[in-house]
Design brief:
Blueprint (H helix, E strand, L loop, with lengths): L1 H45 L17 H9 L3 H12 L2 E6 L2 E6 L2 H8 L1
Antiparallel strand pairs: 1-2
Helix pairs in contact: 2-3
């Protein structure tokens, strides 16, 4: 019985190490990829800085929290109307890290369709 328990504990230790070590290696390999992806998203967002818009809640969520709160309060359209009054007919906001261009200007839409 004692030999079985010792063998069982060694097996658990071995299996724990065999799972833990590759997991740590994968996590360390993912850190540079994560930072590279974050930098690429930041650079992509910089292309749209010339378009006015409200400041984002955070880099990773953008305006998602504001829009979700407005949706819960049934003020979703009021949020866009407020932004339109503040920033004009064309403005940008972000959902997560993706920029969204909002416009009601028909001239901008004509330019885009050509």
């Amino acid at each position: 019985m004692r030999v079985w328990i010792q063998g069982f504990c060694e097996a658990i230790t071995f299996s724990y190490c065999s799972i833990l070590v590759p997991t740590l290696i994968i996590q360390q390999a993912m850190i540079p990829i994560y930072f590279q992806d974050t930098i690429q998203k930041w650079l992509y967002c910089q292309k749209f800085r010339h378009i006015p818009g409200p400041p984002p809640d955070s880099f990773f969520n953008g305006h998602q929290l504001t829009l979700m709160a407005a949706k819960k309060a049934n003020k979703f359209l009021d949020c866009f109307l407020t932004w339109r009054e503040m920033y004009g007919d064309t403005f940008q906001f972000r959902i997560k890290t993706r920029p969204v261009i909002f416009t009601v200007d028909p001239e901008v839409l004509k330019l885009r369709s050509q």
